[in-house]
């Protein structure tokens, strides 16, 4: 099903299901159905359709990095701006393929204007970050400029997609 076809079948119930699942994807089908005021079979069928349409990409657990940091060591979180020397489609795709394959890269965005990419990366410590920088940036002859900003405090993290229509 194309994204256009998927958008055409979205109604208030679908949007309520998507909204509720963004808040808590661990709800049972029974609890989810009750929360959006539909029968459990309707809920199950709708959620299955939303998954098949690709609107629910995957379900994951969001971990509390501050609590885990106290147990495992905080590590470093950095926002990294990367500018390439050559911005042709082939060079951009090659760089993106390489960085998204690295486990230290949590998020990767192509942006404009300004740098070509913004990456969110995690490293255990500064030597680990330096190894990451060598692996992803220094060894790539097409990387012209890298600017890293190290997070000292995260004020907000909310991966929720806004579902209201314009």
TrEMBL record:
GO terms for cellular component: cytosol. Keywords: DNA-binding, Transcription, Transcription regulation. The keyword Disulfide bond does not apply. Pfam families: AsnC_trans_reg, HTH_24. One of its GO terms (biological process) is regulation of DNA-templated transcription. Residues 10-71 form the HTH asnC-type domain. It comes from the Bacteria. Gene3D superfamilies: 3.30.70.920, Winged helix-like DNA-binding domain superfamily/Winged helix DNA-binding domain. This is Transcriptional regulator, Lrp/AsnC family-like protein.
